[in-house]
Amino acid sequence: MLIVLFVFSQQTWVADVKAAERRSIETQVEQLRRGYASELNDLYSAVGDYAIWTETAEMIRGKRPAYWGDALDASSLARLDVDEFVVLGIDLQARLSVAVEGESDKRVSADPRFIATILAAVKKGSLTNEDDSIRGITSLGRGQFMFVVRPVFENSAQGGAVGYAAFLRLLSANAASRVAKFSPWRITGFTASQFDAKDNPAAVRQWANGIGNAELDSLVLQDSKETAFGYLRLTDIADQPAWLLRVDMPRTAYARATSTARTQRLTLAAACCVLAFVGGLWLHRVRRLKADSRAMEQRYRAIIEQADEGVLIVDATTKLVVEGNRAIQKLTGLASEALPGHTIEQLLSVPDGADGASLARLIDGGVVRSVELDLTVSNGPPRPVEVTCTGIEMVDDRLLALVIRDLSVRKKAELQLIAKQKHLDRLAHHDQLTGLPNRLFLQAHLPGAIVRATNEKRLLAVLFLDLDRFKHINDSQGHEVGDKLLQEIAKRVRSAVRPDDVVVRMGGDEFVVVLHGAKTHDEINSAAGRINAVMAAPLVVDGRAIATTVSIGVSVFPRDGQTMGELLKHSDTAMYQAKDSGRNNFQVFSPLMDKLIKERVAIETSLRAAIKLNQFEVHYQPIIDISSRRLAGMEALIRWKHPTQGYIPPVRFIEIAEETGLILPLGHFVLNTVARDLVNWRKQGLKIVPVAINISAVQLERTNLREVIHRTLVQHDLSPELLQLELTEGVS
Asked: What angle do CA 4, 261, 259 make, to 5 degrees?
């Protein structure tokens, strides 16, 4: 009976070791699953930086042909471990598809199957909002990839998506290493084409290909004597097996257990045989069993001593440490002989702000699972640890076994992640050139400021600032000087308002100031006038004094709008009124301004249509010599004959034509019409006199006017003396 019980206990022990081994492998497989999810989350965060980026949106619209190379290159994607970058327009036509190989890149065609995947997600509405994405594994002609697709928006994230951006990471040995970076065991990755590799058992090959147990995505094999295997099967977006990850775990503990069990069984059998034949050898067998027991105890002690985690054995009654392994000695900085005599309270403490109930339960001798405490270190600050406590019932005593896991590395990584997140958040909400908050910050801040102004029953003003003639400074002095000028302007605007007020750079030479807590409209007007006064003083950039002014539009909550959109729109309208009023001033929004802006837009729209429909005529005003009373010349005047409104005065459309650039086709029309009329008059035998033509400064800036006039004169065989050029009266 005793022999049967012994054999049964041996089998139970070996089975427990095997079960513990299986749980360890399953834990490693689950770690691979979390590692794969972490990889997709990394890709999601990485592609997000480019999905909400004006440069990417402009590239999709065709406005940034040098996007690849200037805004983004292969080295940037290589640092993110991205093997392929795909950008599609909203029409799902590829704008950019690049394969990255180290520091080099290669343009490739976007895989139609991948585009079909994105199309299916778009139809389901899965790529509509800023945070939407589709992710997983896809099989392409160039291999199998992990991928994440996100919609592309402007920096403001307003309006609909303009396209879609995708990062793809090749399923390779490098990808498998990244997924299993925290695993102590050997990890091997197999793509779908490698599932039938010879070093995989037949059962694994069938399971990997979805044959049998298809509902299971993980598998553990403990058939080999030397190594146990854990498998994780990942499917692609079509729910087809795509990637197989294998963890190889040496069966050291199991081999030791089976060897020990076999040795003990053989020893017991030998002892029984010897006892049957020689009763006198019974005492020798007892000694042998005691020796084996001591050897087993030594093996267990060796396992505890070699464990990576700290182990403390504590007396449950006195709470004094009995002994500790090498790992706990290393963590505490205490030698083996110094550990005994310390109490739990001396070695462990509750972190600041944490609940002390778990430590109290631990001190009382209760079982505690995975509680985070601080471990006292002899030569440094407390170390964060995770503690698990289990009771050990002895014959005449009760002990507590404390397993202590060092959390320093994990805590450090968490702090670094938080710091990185804060840094990324600042980059997303602040302008890199001036350091001021950007448009995204304003979108997050202004609605809350409106709510606070409503609750406090105070005014809130939005000032829209636009620099006067900044383009001229940028073109004449260079973009580097322009950038430095914007930095100095940002400092001046910031210094002209209160610390609680918000100064935002909207982009280019546009700024927005949000004035909080104003009590009267005079206070708001005073702040706008102060900004005009501060900006009127010349700025010194690279030793050169540059004079610039600013036009300001003011809208006030709640009078001029109830929402952020209305306040920004109306302050922008008032700013244009300030421009029309001679610049270097501020204008407060009124409903009349909105009406004028709408009329201006209507004239611009009609003007564009009039050019296409040839609604313009050239009239001639004679110039008479008073002394001889003869015709000395003529002045060509453009007239707009609207089909329903009749002749529209030039004063209503010339200025708009100059601002929009439509003066260029009008100028060409006048020049060609005058040339044709002069030729016709000459053919009719009439006396030809010089004709004066009004020239806009825009024509001088944007065209080679000399070449245009020369070509026209040659084409119509006219003498240069017949044309006289006059700058329009609006030129300053």
From this structure: 155
